[in-house]
Amino acid sequence: MSAKKGDAVAVHYTGRLDDGSIFDSSVSRSPLSFTLGDGNMIKGFDSAVYGMVIGDKKTVTIPAADAYGERRQDMMIEVPLNEVPPHIQPEIGLQLTLQGEGGQPMPVTVVDMDDEKITLDANHDLAGKDLIFDIELVSIS
Q: How is residue 99 annotated by DSSP?
């Protein structure tokens, strides 16, 4: 039986970048479980699992467009320093959570600052990067 849309699947995976650095892996954890085609996985990962059978292993390269998308300039937010809450001491690399439209949390990182403003980056850390995944299909139900 091969994996198809709507199947509950479990996979082991290791994700790495072009330079070989690993950004995530399930190898020392439980397999990742998800439903194929339900929109909860990045498009390229979901597509890679289609047609696999239990025990199959593959390595796929997912272009940024099918992963976390390209980096977007409109996801860069400038905030005047006088609007930063007094309990926050901004510094480059500081990760914060803003409240997005609809109230959902939006993680951001301070990427620049000067005497008047800080610049926050709301792009996903992996945006703009091609991702390489080693995938092993563990189960289909």
A: E
Residue whose C-alpha is closest to residue 17's, from 71, 72, 67, 56: 67
Average pLDDT over residues 46-57: 97
Residues paired with 99 in a beta bridge: 105
Structure tokens at 42: 């990045």
**In the chain, which segments carry CATH 2.40.10.330?**
73-121
Contact (Cβ atoms closer than 8 angstroms) between residue 118 and residue 84 = yes
Domain 8-69+126-140, architecture per CATH: Roll (3.10)
Amino acid making up residue 17: L
Indicate the CATH number for domain 73-121: 2.40.10.330
Distance in angstroms (rounded) separating the CA atoms of residues 60 and 135: 8
pLDDT score at 102: 87
Q: Which residue has the tokens 């439209």?
A: 101
pLDDT (tens digit per residue) in 84-102: 999 999 999 999 999 888 8
- Reduce the DSSP state of residue 79 to 3 states and report it: strand
Residues 6+ apart with CB under 8 A from 18: 129, 130, 132
Longest dimension (CA), the chain: 61
